[in-house]
Design brief:
By secondary structure, this protein is mostly helical. Helix content is about 55%, strand content about 0%. About 0% of the residues are buried.
């Protein structure tokens, strides 16, 4: 294979037409993705407690981006709280 691409590993032959020439990428990646998602895609539910965890993580990430704290320290600060949320759900 020239560009290390492979046809889809799916039994649905209709989707194989998207990759008719496996030596070339699809002409429109967005269209290919939408077509595959239309048949196989679904929205997954958020994990219980995710909103609470996100509320803890986002301020810490903002501190990391601002350079006021490193990532390891930021995550260690909220680790006990996140673990408590995960344990109760």
């Amino acid at each position: 294979m020239k560009n290390k691409r492979m046809p889809p590993n799916v039994d649905d032959l209709a989707l194989w037409d998207i990759y008719a020439d496996s030596t070339k990428p699809p002409k429109n990646v967005a269209a290919v993705t939408k077509e595959i998602n239309a048949k196989y895609g679904r929205i997954l539910p958020l994990r219980a407690g995710w909103t609470e965890i996100q509320g803890l993580v986002m301020p810490q990430l903002q501190k990391v981006y601002a350079g006021s704290v490193n990532a390891a320290t930021a995550m260690k600060e909220i680790e006990p709280q996140v673990n408590a949320i995960l344990a109760k759900k």
